[in-house]
Design a protein that fits this description.
about 25% helix, binds zinc ion, 3 helices, HIT family, subunit A, five-stranded antiparallel β-sheet, binds guanosine-5'-monophosphate, alpha+beta
């Protein structure tokens, strides 16, 4: 990967699709931009108004991001969610990140999907993504494992 400086100190990469979209090398339907965050329409939307909210800085994985970048990203995601719901008279929305290939991430540049929803649209909630029926008799052990990993 060749780092490419386009936004002051913000590093982008030449071989990333979303870095190319953010820099304008590849056209997109931009809906919002500030110093840290860029938002544009998903080219294959799950519902009308489906928007992708991305940090301008290239991070492949959500856990690589620092607190400040996460705060900016999610504050814009909140604003975009409100705008998208208003613009399409949506009654709700799914807001989420496919984090890593195993979770369905196809473009390795962090992005929050904002997908407006209406009652009766045929879609389901976030647990319809995966349901592996894990054991629920040991929830406290599981909580402890996560606490220890923090
Ligand atoms: P992921 O699976 O990585 O979470 O989501 C990638 C998203 O990017 C997909 O929903 C896909 O439709 C969208 N996408 C892929 N290529 C392009 C593109 O060239 N332009 C835009 N606007 N969206 C894209
Ligand atoms: Zn990128």
């Amino acid at each position: 990967m060749y780092p490419l400086k386009l936004y002051g100190d913000i590093v982008m990469t030449e071989d990333c699709l979303f870095c190319k979209i953010i820099s304008g090398k590849i056209p997109s339907n931009r809906v919002y931009e500030d110093d840290a965050v860029f938002a544009f329409l998903d080219i294959y939307p799950a519902s009308e108004g489906h928007t992708l909210v991305t940090p301008i800085k290239h991070f492949s994985n959500f856990t690589d991001m620092n607190s400040e970048d996460v705060a900016s990203l999610f504050e814009v995601a909140r604003k975009i969610t409100a705008a998208v719901e208003k613009a399409f008279s949506a009654e709700g929305s799914n807001i989420g990140i496919n984090n890593g290939e195993a979770a369905g991430q196809e473009v390795p540049h962090v992005h929050v999907h904002v997908i407006p929803r209406k009652k009766g649209d045929g879609g389901r909630g976030i647990k319809s993504i995966v349901w592996t029926e894990p054991d629920t008799n040991n929830l406290e052990e599981i909580a402890e494992k996560i606490r220890r990993a923090l």
